[in-house]
Amino acid sequence: MVHARAWLVLIAAFVLSGRGVADDDPDATPTRPVLLAHYMPWYVAPPVSDRWGWHWTMNAFDPEQVVDDRPQIASHFQPLVGPYDSGGPHVLECHLLLMKLAGIDGVIVDWYGLEDVHDYAVLHRNTRRLIEQAGRLRMQFAICYEDRTVSALLKAGRLDAAERVAHVASEIDWLAQHWFTLPGYVHLDDRPVLLSFGQTGLTDAEWADCLESVDRPVAYFSQHHRRTAATGAFDWPVPAKGLDVHAAFRERSRQWPHAIPVVVPRFRDIYAEAKVHASWGRIDDADGRTFRSSLEQALEMKPRLIQIATWNDWGEGTMIEPSREFGYRDLEVVQKRRRERGELQATATTDDLRLPLELLRQRQAAEHPEETARLDRIAELLAAGRCRDARRLLEGQ
């Protein structure tokens, strides 16, 4: 067990290193932008769980069926680690270490609230596990609240229409009590950052009432357009309209106090093939040019926060998580650009990006409890950016 004094030292180092906060001084040198990957905690798979979840199957695919060495999952692409459960601690560790070595500061977690309807309870459990790992590995995180949960709760008879504003306010108050105060939570101008995805839950006026009633002020960002009570808005891909929507967002955002631009690798969903609904459209990968150009455009805005959409939405094909098709390419792009800008906090190379996956494989193959201490030490070394030492331990030296 870590003593209280040691925890205080760790937290102090975390804050002083620039993590978890973004200072607001207009006369200061532009700060290093906080780069966050939008993270989906919704995957369910054996052996962590006793079944395959909808996001791997969409009621049309069977991951147990393997064709040409490819599990049949609801995606055009294959995770390099294989289909996984978002509640698996070793996979979460691997994901966060990959981000850290690439120069990604943390995650914006897609969160559906506290109610036990549909798979929301599983998503909340997995989010808690992700946040635990983020704290352990000294990574940042923020929450994106799914606005459509309000509509889903109304449809399920779990919420009265007159209670909608109070319900969302109570969810935010819970976040303030449990997660906003953690050392790794992203803050902007001393306020915790909160995003909301979608437009179907509360109206503009209702969001204003909601934010006025919460116990703690937040730096609130709405999707695409800045709501009246919002600090700004965050951009998001709209495949049916192509890449022009991002230029329009950049133009609109000039009038706002803050904006969160989006970095997009591609968009190729599986919905039509799964017979969920028609495809939303397509954004071509263009051999990586889409990702590189959107990253440059985001950086040119000189924002305090940048969001990558996404780390792992396999169903929509927007993931930058290593895949069989693209390997580590997108992470290598991020790492190289952050190094060029003097923003890479870990002294990692492109070869070092392979170390978290090797750690995951060794954890999965471990048969004796005494191996855990060595593997935990490797994770600590990677989190500290000591890749050479971690590599030696992984190789059994």
UniProtKB/TrEMBL annotation:
Residues 1-22 form the signal peptide. GO terms for molecular function: alpha-mannosidase activity. Pfam families: Glyco_tran_WbsX. Keywords: Golgi apparatus, Hydrolase, Membrane, Signal, Signal-anchor, Transmembrane, Transmembrane helix. Its main location: Golgi. The keyword Thylakoid does not apply. This is Glycosyl hydrolase family 71. It comes from Maioricimonas rarisocia.
